[in-house]
Amino acid sequence: MTTPDRYKDAPKVTQVEVAEGLKETGLKPGDVVLDYFVGGGTTAVEAKLLGRRCIARDINPGATGITLENLKFSPPGEHFGNVALSLYEPEVSVGNAKDLADIANSSIDLICALY
Ligand SMILES: C[S@@+](CC[C@H](N)C(=O)[O-])C[C@H]1O[C@@H](n2cnc3c(N)ncnc32)[C@H](O)[C@@H]1O
Predict the structure, then answer these.
(1) From the CA of 114, how far away is ligand 1's center (Å)?
(2) Which atom of ligand 1 is nearest to the CA of 39?
(3) Ligand 1 atom 4, closest CA
(4) Helix 42-50 to helix 61-70 angle, to the nearest 10 degrees?
(5) Does any ligand 1 atom lie closer than 6 A to the CB of residue 40?
(6) Mind giving me the DSSP string for 23-79?
(7) pLDDT < 50 regions, the chain
(8) Whether residue 18 has its Cβ less than 6 Å from ligand 1
(9) What are the residue ranges spanned by the domains of the chain?
């Protein structure tokens, strides 16, 4: 599969500001978010910044490649006040959203499915 044109100029999404979205969901540190349409990796980047676990999937290897590029950063912990956050590297893989059978029941706290 080739990378669609729309990913050609995909922006880097490592800015701290993108963390705001997940903060508003009520997801707690260490909780697990699943994004099976991860695209360029916004959810994965947010999860890493906020000390949340993330299972990041996409059917397109080009998209998961961009996600992995966007995850090449160290979280600037000082941006999140006094809260000591553990670092969880998102689990990025190529996969079809139609087949999530490998994910254990009750292991996901939030599903993010922005297509
Ligand atoms: C609009 S993008 C998602 C953008 C993402 N929320 C972000 O912030 O970058 C939709 C993604 O869904 C993926 N996709 C489409 N059908 C899929 C399927 N059946 N299983 C997994 N991923 C799929 C596409 O490859 C594409 O990367």
Answers:
(1) 8
(2) 27
(3) 39
(4) 30
(5) yes
(6) HTTTPPTT-EEEETT-TTTHHHHHHHHHT-EEEEEES-HHHHHHHHHHT-S---GGG
(7) 1-4, 6-8, 10-17
(8) no
(9) 12-75+83-96+106-112
User: Who's near 57: CB < 8 A, 6+ residues apart?
Assistant: 34, 35, 36, 37, 38, 64, 92, 93, 94, 95, 97
Which CATH number is 12-75+83-96+106-112's, of 3.40.50.150, 3.90.930.12, 3.60.130.10, 3.30.70.270?
Answer: 3.40.50.150
Atom number in ligand 1 closest to CA 97: 20
Q: What is the pLDDT of residue 65?
A: 97
- Across all residues in the chain, what is the average pLDDT? 82
Hey, what are 27's tokens?
Answer: 């997801």
* 1 close to ligand 1 (CB < 6 Angstrom): no
> Among all chains, which residue has been given the structure tokens 């706290």?
109
